[in-house]
Design brief:
There is one protein chain. This protein has 324 residues and is of the alpha/beta class. It is built from eleven helices and eleven strands. The strands form two sheets. A seven-stranded mixed beta sheet has the order 3-2-1-4-5-10-11, sandwiched between helices. Bound molecules: adenosine-5'-diphosphate and 6-O-phosphono-beta-D-fructofuranose. The site of adenosine-5'-diphosphate (ADP) has 17 residues, from helix 4.
Length: 324
């Protein structure tokens, strides 16, 4: 029989993402509405090990849905990767009466949740990352805001690039995944889109493309380069030397992780927060929430971590066609 839940914890882990606050709010308010107590665990698994645990009431999540970052703070904890750290974490949960934990983060954070579940603490993961690189879900909290932030910045770079008739390489985040680059590439009408999943490292193709576009009268040439490829500054130097066209690199960086979440991020994060609490109440553990084919769903963490997701072939093909 499923154990009866009385108190749950919520933490954010790994890189922060806009919309995490909406997810925290969804967890806290749903849990309280269902008669549970809620503890906020600060600074991810490291905060759990340091017992940075606070009682959370509905008022603690007032006026946060529109704020970027995470009110609980986040961290990467090496100590929690050790068996001793995990046992200590589970023991601290028991000491504070926490029988279930909602973990908002990425793949690494789910590994931690899996360990806690094996040690008797029920856990549910919620996908929180701007990178969209979680295989079991078509949506991750923060991606929509990050893409919109990057898109607006790239529009601005494009204005100055066109005025000066320059080539611009704009590097966007995404760790090893090219989703932000692909979306910006299409949304900003870039001339070249370099994705770690597809790039052949043949710079001559890019150089030829720039020269032929310039001959056709294009005043700018925007290259969206994914962080997983990187080296935008040295690439700009080589391209300028080969084409004779002034070339600048802009690395957008952490601005993509901050700021006010979009409606989509607030909406999905809110539903996922509620959903996580409701499946905890059904006695589920070691699950991760996802969004697939228009529905909120959940998967076993191990199964979710074994899934693969790549760049859609048709969408990539369209990005090439439209770049001409
Ligand atoms: P993300 O969750 O965004 O993928 P990380 O990979 O940095 O970010 O993971 C966040 C945290 O999750 C780590 O700092 C660590 O505390 C915990 N974690 C990651 N991998 C494991 C693991 N194999 N076992 C236990 N905890 C882990
Ligand atoms: O996972 C989100 C992300 O911003 C990635 O796009 C990037 O590679 C990484 O985090 C940067 O991490 P850190 O905050 O540790 O520099």
């Amino acid at each position: 029989m499923a154990k009866e839940l009385k108190t749950i914890g919520v933490l954010t882990s790994g890189g922060d993402a806009p919309g995490m606050n909406a997810a925290i709010r969804g967890v806290v308010r749903t849990a309280i509405a269902r008669g549970l107590k809620v503890k906020g665990i600060k600074k991810g698994y490291q905060g759990l090990l340091n017992e940075e645990i606070i009682d959370m009431e509905t008022k603690h999540v007032s006026d946060i849905i529109q704020r970027g970052g995470t009110i609980l703070g986040t961290a990467r904890s090496m100590e929690f990767k050790t068996a001793e750290g995990q046992e200590k974490g589970a023991e601290i949960c028991r000491k504070h009466g926490i029988d279930g934990v909602v973990v908002i983060g990425g793949d690494g954070s789910y590994r931690g949740a899996q360990k806690l579940s094996q040690l008797g603490i029920n856990t549910i993961g919620i996908p929180g990352t701007i990178d969209l690189d979680i295989s079991c879900t078509e949506y991750t909290i923060g991606f929509d805001t990050a893409v919109n932030t990057a898109m607006q910045a790239i529009d601005k770079v494009k204005d100055t690039s066109s005025s000066h008739e320059r080539c611009s390489i704009i590097e966007v985040m995404g760790r090893n995944a090219g989703y932000i680059a692909l979306w910006c590439g299409i949304a900003n009408g870039a001339e070249d889109i370099l994705l770690p999943e597809r790039y052949d490292y043949n710079e001559q193709n890019i150089i030829n493309n720039i020269i032929s576009n310039r001959k056709r009268g294009k005043t700018h040439h925007i290259i969206i380069n994914a962080e997983g490829i990187g080296h935008s500054t040295s690439m700009a130097r080589r391209i300028e030397a080969a084409t004779g066209i002034e070339t600048r690199a802009t690395i957008l960086g952490y601005m993509q992780r901050g700021g006010c979440p979009t409606a989509r991020d607030r909406y999905y994060a809110s539903i996922m927060g509620s959903y996580a609490v409701d499946i905890l109440l059904q006695g589920k553990t070691n699950r991760v929430v996802g969004y697939q084919h228009g529905e909120f769903v959940d998967f076993d963490i191990e199964e979710a971590l074994q899934m693969n997701k790549g760049i859609d072939e048709y969408e990539f093909e369209v990005s090439k066609v439209l770049a001409i």
